[in-house]
Amino acid sequence: MSADSRIEAITKRIVERSKPTREVYLDRTRRAISKGVHRSTLSCGNLAHGFAVCSPSDKAALAGDVVPNLGIITAYNDMLSAHQPFETYPALIRQAAAEAGGVAQVAGGVPAMCDGVTQGQPGMELSLFSRDAIAMAAAIGLSHNMFDAAVYLGVCDKIVPGLMIAALTFGHLPSVFIPAGPMTTGLPNDEKSRIRQLYAEGKVGRAELLEAESKSYHGPGTCTFYGTANSNQMLMEIMGFHLPGASFINPGTPLRDALTKEATKRALAITALGNEFTPAGEMIDERSIVNGVVGLHATGGSTNHTLHLIAMARAGGIQLTWQDISDLSDIVPLLARVYPNGLADVNHFHAAGGMGFLIKQLLKAGYVHDDVRTVYGQGLAAYTIDPKLAEDGTVSREPASEVSADPKVLSTIDKPFQSNGGLKMLTGNLGKGVIKISAVKPERHVIEAPAIVFHDQQELQDAFKAGKLEKDFIAVVRFQGPKANGMPELHRLTPPLGVLQDRGFKVALVTDGRMSGASGKVPAAIHVTPEAVDGGPIARIKDGDIIRLDAIAGTLEVLVGAAELASRDNATTDLDANEFGMGRELFASFRRIAGPADQGASVLF
Length: 605
Fold this sequence. Notes:
Elements: H1 5-35, H2 44-50, H3 56-63, E1 69-74, H4 89-99, E2 103-109, H5 115-118, H6 127-142, E3 149-153, H7 159-169, E4 175-178, H8 189-200, H9 206-216, H10 228-238, H11 254-269, H12 280-283, H13 286-299, H14 305-315, H15 322-331, H16 346-352, H17 354-364, E5 373-374, E6 377-378, E7 385-389, E8 395-399, E9 423-428, E10 431-436, E11 446-454, H18 457-465, E12 473-477, H19 482-485, H20 494-502, E13 507-511, E14 524-529, E15 546-550, E16 555-558, H21 562-567, H22 588-593
Parallel strand pairs: 1-2, 1-3, 3-4, 11-12, 12-13, 13-14
Antiparallel strand pairs: 5-6, 7-8, 9-10, 10-14, 11-15, 15-16
Helix pairs in contact: 1-15, 4-11, 6-7, 7-14, 8-9, 8-20, 10-13
EC number: 4.2.1.12
Pathway: Carbohydrate metabolism; Entner-Doudoroff pathway
Cofactor: [4Fe-4S] cluster
């Protein structure tokens, strides 16, 4: 089925806008392909270093140019639940590669930090920049030019975007992303949220809070709410970097291992040495990026991807904008209710029909492009399946059901949970920002209230605990942008603002910082740009100014006269405390050169 005419129109304008940069990118990619994507370009000395520790049989294989070699880029560490399962993957991949007549080597490791651990802590100020550091680290591993294809082991917030930037930077190589899957279901997400809110109110202590958190995050795999990590997995599947059905199978299961082996063999099959050469830079195009954005809206995915998708697209020479993302959100209905947009977790989403059912529904209405290339072959229709474990231990696939196994979690095109994706670009005299309203009640889509200004999130926490916020207000938390302090997530603000909202007050948040995929019921205008440290209008807001946040009209305004606003001096704040500690001093140069949020907040583009 051809794509909906509105989807086609947005795709075409992205293609037109991207022509100058996309043509340059494709030319570079094709020149790299023509030079040789494997070991034929290396001298004997280069090659000897490259396989010095290999087995005799692998050395013999790598000495020629007829056996493909996979470069493994891994985000393994054994502190983070989502990445701990990757410990055993290299051995599994090497075994599967050998069975298929190939070789696999760990090309390099990349850092993997957890926003859940660093939330509200100094280390969070490294989080966004870790995305670009991950891309750079992956590039170092692949720069040895020993490889015919790459497989990427990563799951969480900045890791997958960083790895995709690397995959497109090395766009002459085929690339397959291999996930680890979500942890099994623990304490229900709404119960975890309830305990957090009680803790914020002082009604339970740290022991009760820690018990609830530990029951939620209890084993190997990604957190089960639909934040950035699980949005990443959805994106990699709908954009064609995963094998069909790979995203949400739990770690440590036979099906998970079978999918990993299959991904390895598929990566070998799509190298230049075979008949299905699929370089990542040519595989991913404007249609693939639009499919990713559509999937984000249809599932109520993470606001972090209003940054990441732009940066990821730019790595492939594609110029995606917030306006594109917002316009697609107006078209695409919300088909999934996964926490914080509902009570279910990603395991419930998968059990209800998962990615296969979702993609089938989107294809049926023409909301995604079917005529795309993927690591599995041609066409997105191949992803409308339900993965199973065959009797021989391999992966089998059945057609995705026409009926949701749980309509409260995953619905159909003709009965969506809401008519749009709930992610909107905001514009006005405060600049540009974005808002996610898929979990915000309709009566809170427009908030007009006096501003209370804070220069860090602790100030708001202190004011809440002191009882100074028992009124209608819009919290303006500024100097939280990329150049100020690395743009940390401000998710710790959600419980106190949620408490105040539940007490009947009209509250909202306006910030040049980030929230996250875990943001929920409180309206929040985030990623406001220009940021305060760059002299953006947010730096000229004063306590008591009336701000109007209108997620329906897509506007963000401070209701003072233009002359009055222009005449004000920009506020300043002492950021010295953000310059040192927990490695922040090492990222000073990143803060100086970081781009604005609407261009991906990157130091690379």
